[in-house]
Amino acid sequence: MPRRTTAAAAAGLLALTLSACAKSVGDGPGDAGASAQQQVEATTGDASLCTPERYNGGVPQLDLKNVTVGFAQSEKEANPFRITETQSIKDEATRRGIKLITTNAQSDLNKEIADIQGMIAQGAKVLIISPLNSEGLDPALKAAQDAKVPIMTIDRLLTTKKACVDYVGWIGSDFVKQGARAADAMITATGDKGEVAILLGASGVNVTVDRTKGFKDQLAAKGSSLKVVAEQTGDFTREKGRAVTEQLISANPGISAIYAENDEMALGAVAALKAAGKKPGDVKIVTIDGTRGAVQGIVDGWIAAVIESNPRFGPLAFQALEDFYAGKGVPAKTIISDKEYTPENAQAELPNAY
Ligand code: GZL
Q1: Which CATH number fits domain 175-308: 3.30.43.10, 3.30.930.10, 3.30.390.10, 3.40.50.2300?
Q2: Which of 53, 109, 199, 292 is the most exposed place for a label (fewest CB within 10 A)?
Q3: Which atom of ligand 1 is the closest one to the Cα of 173?
Q4: Secondary structure letter of residue 286 according to DSSP
Q5: Is the CB of 155 under 6 A from ligand 1?
Q6: Distance from residue 262's CA to the centre of ligand 1 (Å)
Q7: Taking Cα atoms as reference points, which of 268, 185, 279 lies closest to residue 226?
Q8: C-beta 236 within 6 A of ligand 1
């Protein structure tokens, strides 16, 4: 083994240190530090926690360090939510010394099914899945069931499937509560008056249904004077968010507020408002995710508030799998808590954004 010269070794060590340092201060999407990690707010589901004996008629006991775990990502990694989610899974697998293989469905349901089936064929003995839609994964779930490969789901919920039968458990945010918190922030930002447009998330996803329900129900519960005059899907993408906002403000010139069901669509809306000659604050925007771009948008005056949807699932997802095999069991639902970014805290909290 050729010995490296002292200079080269020092350079290598310096590079290693710098890269670790860059990561620790949150240089770009990824982890910003301990306070950015997901925190458990509540767990639900029937009392019987899921264990290998109870799951899917019983599955083999195993040591995670001796098998391959597969991670199926849903949407293309153009959105910092997805980039950070995947990085968090990879970082935690590395930290725990677990062999990980990953796939990305590029926002295509049939590809996510094929990805999951492919990882089982490659020998993955456990899966972590971030579902693209709340339904439609049946062929992949059956392949895992037949192969006795347990699935931990994160983020979007498989609404027609059963915990400890079709999947071990689920970890994610309370999306209805996110919508309600967005409504409260919108009431504050607008002084509870004006016309609101909603940029809906992708269809067929519980996140969209819940964030919309939470927002509208909270406006009604608070007896708000805000009026929802338009709602259209922007598919959770920046480009569609921009295009839809252009149409909405042209058809509804009285729009004074936009509720975007994710930051990528909100940033698309900002681009459309800029192109229309609007100034920061002319239209109040409230959005959900907590990406660096959106929180910077608060600092710059374009965005009024951001409700976080924390994508750093790595630690809790792998802890759930450890608990599963240790016989401690996994609850049907683990709900995480989410921060809120406002004009008062955005600058200071920016390092926790992703
Ligand atoms: C929410 C997640 C959503 C994000 C979007 O947990 O499913 O999907 O809010 C992403 O940014 O597209």
Answers
A1: 3.40.50.2300
A2: 53
A3: 6
A4: E
A5: yes
A6: 7
A7: 185
A8: yes
* Ligand 1 centre distance from Cα of residue 203 (Å): 12
> Is-contact 292 319, C-beta < 8 A?
no
Q: Which two tokens stand for residue 319?
A: 């802890």
| CA of 337 relative to ligand 1 center, distance in Å | 15
Q: Please give the single-letter amino acid code of residue 116.
A: I
Name the residue type at position 229: V
Q: What is the rounded CA–CA span in Å between residue 214 and residue 182?
A: 8
Helix H or strand E encompassing 16: helix 6-24
Asked if residues 122 and 68 have their Cβ atoms less than 8 Å apart, the reply is yes
Q: pLDDT tens digits, residue range 159-184?
A: 999 999 999 999 999 999 999 999 99
Tell me if 81 CB under 6 Å of ligand 1. Answer: yes
Quote the ligand 1 centre to 220 CA distance (angstroms). 25
pTM comes to 0.91
Ligand 1 lined by 262 (C-beta under 6 Å): yes
Is the CB of residue 353 less than 8 Å from the CB of residue 341?
yes
> What would you report as the CA-atom Rg of the chain, rounded to the nearest whole angstrom?
22
Q: 7-168+310-339 maps to which CATH number?
A: 3.40.50.2300
Give the pLDDT band (50/70/90) at residue 30: very low
Q: Which residue has the tokens 């069991």?
A: 329
The reported pLDDT for the residue numbered 45 is 72
Ligand 1 atom 5 nearest Cα: 262
Q: Where in the chain is the domain with CATH 3.40.50.2300?
A: 7-168+310-339, 175-308
Using the atom order of ligand 1, give the atom closest to the CA of residue 202.
12
